[in-house]
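Internal ticket - ligand job 243, zinc ion:
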Amino acid sequence: MSEVVLVDAHCHVSEYSVEEIRSFGNIRIAGVAMDLESSKATLELSRQSKNIDPFIGLHPWNLHKKNGELKGIKELAVHGGVAGLGEVGVDLRYARAPLKEQLKIFNELCELATERGYPLNVHALGAWEDVVKSCIRVGVKSLLLHWYTGPIELLKDIKDANYFISINPSVIIQQKHMKILQEADMDIILTESDGPYSYRGLNLSPKSLGNLLKTIASVKKLSVEEASEIVYANYLRFLRAPR
Ligand SMILES: [Zn+2]
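stdout (structure tokens):
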């Protein structure tokens, strides 16, 4: 039996201490950031914890107050050690910046990702279709739609473009998300916690990922080892964005 490596493809690591991250055990984490400060903190943490792949970004919720930070993030992106860009994206429900401005900044980040061969760790709440279609159009090579609750029909376009979705532990209580897990091909699935975050009484953290993997294995009629092997291989493909 091969060793189970857990994957947390979307986690706000800068909100945890190094000790807490160590306590998560054998896990590979894509650490995402909300702004310039958390981008720098994520990079710093990745120097201390080898299991962290550091992503830098500016969350769509922060555009109205931290738009000026975009320049700093672009500068950081040309330095070594960055694994990808995120959390970036477009949010039609909760972001305060107008859609047009969100899309403009997101497109700039897509161009940067394409130029440098970075994968994108994306938040696209309510804007799933716009984001996927625009990324395909501008030639984004590697993309993760985190905590995907978008249309089932879009899963085919996501698979054809070699993009990924991530499944969150909320799948046990969020019916819409469970439907996505049932319908999505295993080849596009990654696991995530979005930790530290509380969702309808669920305490989301990388510690929830062992149980999440069991749920996925059971829905997909696989052993936990098979499910973990597929998710880990998917994660490595996600990280290796071809230029
Ligand atoms: Zn997040």
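Auto-summary: The chain is about 40% helix and 15% strand. The first strand starts at residue 6 and ends at 11.
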